[in-house]
Amino acid sequence: LGAGPLAGRRLLVTSGPTHEPIDPVRYIANRSSGAQGSALARALVALGAEVVFVTGPAEVPPPEGVELVKVQTAQQMLAAVEAALPVDAAIFAAAVADWRMASASDRKLKKSKDGLPVLEFAENPDILKQVSHMGKDRPALVVGFAAETDDVLENATAKRLRKGCDWIIANDVSPATGIMGGAENAVTLISEAGAESWPRMGKDAVAAMLAERIAAALGALQSQ
Ligand code: C5P
């Protein structure tokens, strides 16, 4: 067994975007580099955790030392998450597409003089919400992210309750912040105890701080 405060713990991290195919050459997706999720997984490994890293097609390379599960779509991500359970804690850093095509075309859609294609959407599963509401397999600590462009605190606080997770890591991704795709992040940790804003720092430093907090929370839960 390794050393560190998370030795012997199994944790799950989702990261990156999902890609929802429209046809074989096109997809819809959210903007996500996967940087914060990768950094977090690395920080958890550094504390001795066994980490299952479920990632969509991210821009950054996956972390080393994890059990890597690569997926494309939200439905695949949900299946991979369910297969990874049980875990002690689950952190949902992925930017999952809210919608997929009601039925993706298996042939490339062609331009036509008959007009524009009409795309019909279907709702994707909310993985965070589903795991938060699980019965016996619910991880002891479930952490979600909230990328907001306005009323960050208010929206993220409401999101914590709506999703049923323990913590929300809220960040302001309005374009002026340069956070999206950048090296830094400024987050607020929202828990039942309230909101705690951390100073702006590198995504690696946010990851290290969050990993420490997760280790402390799991330690406290165990000694209850
Ligand atoms: O509702 P919203 O997308 O803003 O919620 C963000 C949080 O929920 C993130 O932690 C994200 O990983 C998670 N999520 C999810 N499955 C979805 C949508 C979001 O796990 N379909």
Automatic annotation (TrEMBL):
Q: Where is the DNA/pantothenate metabolism flavoprotein C-terminal domain?
A: 6-216
Please list which residues make up the signal peptide: none
Residue ranges for the region (Phosphopantothenate--cysteine ligase) are: 11-224
Catalytic reaction(s) noted: N-[(R)-4-phosphopantothenoyl]-L-cysteine + H(+) = (R)-4'-phosphopantetheine + CO2; (R)-4'-phosphopantothenate + L-cysteine + CTP = N-[(R)-4-phosphopantothenoyl]-L-cysteine + CMP + diphosphate + H(+)
Highest taxon of the lineage? Bacteria
Q: Where does CTP bind?
A: 98, 108, 125-128, 145, 159, 163
What cofactors are annotated for this protein?
Answer: FMN; Mg(2+)
Provide the alphabetized UniProt keywords: Decarboxylase, Flavoprotein, FMN, Ligase, Lyase, Magnesium, Metal-binding, Multifunctional enzyme
Pathway per its UniProt entry is:
Cofactor biosynthesis; coenzyme A biosynthesis; CoA from (R)-pantothenate: step 2/5; Cofactor biosynthesis; coenzyme A biosynthesis; CoA from (R)-pantothenate: step 3/5
How, per the record, is the cofactor bound?
Binds 1 FMN per subunit.
Q: Does the keyword Transport apply?
A: no
What Enzyme Commission number(s) apply to this enzyme?
Answer: 4.1.1.36, 6.3.2.5
| Task of the protein | Catalyzes two steps in the biosynthesis of coenzyme A. In the first step cysteine is conjugated to 4'-phosphopantothenate to form 4-phosphopantothenoylcysteine, in the latter compound is decarboxylated to form 4'-phosphopantotheine. Catalyzes two sequential steps in the biosynthesis of coenzyme A. In the first step cysteine is conjugated to 4'-phosphopantothenate to form 4-phosphopantothenoylcysteine. In the second step the latter compound is decarboxylated to form 4'-phosphopantotheine.
| Family the UniProt entry places it in | In the C-terminal section; belongs to the PPC synthetase family.
Name of the protein described by the UniProt record = Coenzyme A biosynthesis bifunctional protein CoaBC
Native organism: Sulfitobacter aestuarii
Designated gene of the protein:
coaBC
**Residue window of the full protein shown:** 179 to 402 of 407
